[in-house]
Amino acid sequence: xxxxxxxxxxxxxxxxxxxxxxxxxxxxxxxxxxxxxxxxxxxxxxxxxxxxxxxxxxxxxxxxxxxxxxxxxxxxxxxxxxxxxxxxxxxxxxxxxxxxxxxxxxxxxxxxxxxxxxxxxxxxxxxxxxxxxxxxxxxxxxxxxxxxxxxxxxxxxxxxxxxxxxxxxxxxxxxxxxxxxxxxxxxxxxxxxxxxxxxxxxxxxxxxxxxxxxxxxxxxxxxxxxxxxxxx
Length: 232
Ligand SMILES: Nc1ncnc2c1ncn2[C@@H]1O[C@H](COP(=O)(O)OP(=O)(O)O)[C@@H](O)[C@H]1O
Ligand SMILES: [Mg+2]
Fold this sequence. Notes:
This protein has helices at 40-48, 70-76, 93-100, 113-119, 136-148, 166-179, 192-198, 216-221, 223-229, and strands at residues 2-11, 14-24, 29-33, 55-60, 63-64, 78-81, 154-158, 185-189, 201-206, 209-215. With 232 residues, the chain is of the alpha/beta class. The chain has one domain: P-loop containing nucleotide triphosphate hydrolases (Rossmann fold), CATH 3.40.50.300. The strands form two sheets. A six-stranded mixed β-sheet has the order 6-7-8-3-9-10, sandwiched between helices. The site of magnesium ion (MG) has 5 residues, from helix 1.
């Protein structure tokens, strides 16, 4: 599905990703774990074409996408929820969904408004509310729903738990567990407890390099890795 091979990404002269490789299969959900500043968001931005890697390649469904523009990458079927969510504050929830809707996208094409509201029932009573008037948790749900209604075939979620109260995180966990039956997901998280509960496999990144890769069960029981690389 997605293969990142030895990418090097920079902000100006600052060499942030130093040979990151990872892959996601058709039927799996992956997490990218690491502390603040480790390179998680830069990895996602590199996939999306916002920070194009200077070396290495990224393939999506067998085709090279590194070098394409973000809109082309979205069009090929990668849905992206950035860290700051980017909800349109002036638009209603319904309008936020409508602007992103795409019938017969590269994914299954099943995500119309009805399917979205079935997956995110909390949004139903909020359809007429302005995006800017939603709580943080509601905004996160809307951001994920908005990515999904474009009918992608892979979903990238950057720190979905950030700033959310524990009860909202629990709700989000339920949603992501349902969602991963429908679509492969790559989650970047500092919250390893959360990410390891909703993923099949995980990578640990530090200072722009992948330090460890393993099944979530192994990462969960590996206290050495947790102490060294994660804030748990
Ligand atoms: N726009 C930017 N310009 C310069 N440096 C940046 C920028 N964004 C992130 N960085 C730096 O790149 C490194 C990785 O950041 P990031 O990928 O955001 O980490 P994470 O998402 O894991 O917290 C950090 O050292 C950060 O300071
Ligand atoms: Mg980040």
